[in-house]
Write a structure and sequence with these properties.
This protein is an alpha+beta fold. It has helices at residues 3-14, 32-42, 189-195; strands at residues 69-71, 86-92, 105-111, 117-124, 136-137, 144-151, 154-161, 167-170, 176-177, 183-187, 219-223. 13% of the residues lie in helices and 26% in strands. It is globular.
């Protein structure tokens, strides 16, 4: 729900009987199940009369072509470079099933000023449909591209200079990158896949399946310059 719709929704909830209402100060701790119950009581979401109807939409064009299926994720990553000319994308030759360990994801740059020309620059075997391989332009670092990959018995992060072609490897995968592009938060994607299939990566099993709180598994801060954490 947008903030506008959500605001109208909870305001409407406060106008009904106390036993079925929710206080605005409790919104921060309302879970999804509670919200769905309140929607059911109301007979659906209320209509917000302040939403304007848009008569015209911005122009849309397709950037990729067959063969293959193209996508990008996650939604909070930088798909376009700072100039707006180059867009990142991922390509696979199948859909409709969970990736296998041997399935490689092709990575490319689309040049919007050259008839959407696709330039391949790498691939990854550490990816999923939900979040891709964390492909993105590195924040505050012109022309540098980042993505997760699998190397032998570990997950890593690749950093490529798109201008020079120079590439290096950070010995930890990334999840979220700081705005200055110097550090990132890293997860144990083996355990994520075991606990939340589809959000981790296939290929490396969780070595701590029998442990509730493994000492060497968790969230880590990674220095993207020297790889330390």
């Amino acid at each position: 729900m947008t903030g506008l719709v959500a605001g109208s929704f909870f305001a409407h909830l406060n106008s009904i009987s106390p036993e079925h209402s929710l206080r605005c100060e409790d919104v921060a701790v309302i879970d999804r199940r509670t919200i769905l119950k309140q929607i059911a009581l109301l007979g659906g979401l209320p209509v917000c009369p302040t939403i304007d109807v848009v008569d015209e939409f911005p122009p849309v064009r397709r950037l990729t072509r067959a063969p293959g299926h193209h996508f990008f994720g996650y939604y909070d990553k930088f798909q376009f470079d700072h100039s707006g000319r180059f867009a990142l994308a991922m390509r696979v030759d199948f859909e409709g099933r969970t990736p296998r360990a041997e399935d490689a994801l092709a990575l490319g740059v689309i040049d919007l000023e050259r008839e959407d020309h696709w330039t391949s620059f790498g691939e990854s075997t550490a990816w999923g449909w939900q979040q891709g391989c964390m492909l993105q332009w590195r924040p505050a670092h012109d022309r540098q591209i980042m993505w997760n990959d699998r190397e032998s018995d570990r997950y890593v992060c690749r950093i490529l200079d798109f201008q020079t072609g120079e590439q290096r490897t950070v010995p930890s995968p990334i999840y979220s990158v700081a705005p200055d592009g110097l550090t990132a938060m890293s997860l144990d994607f083996r355990r994520v896949q075991a606990m939340r299939p589809g959000y981790g990566y296939v290929g490396l099993p969780d070595p701590h399946q029998e442990k509730l709180v493994p000492k060497d598994s968790g969230i880590f801060r990674v220095n993207l310059e020297n790889g330390s954490r």
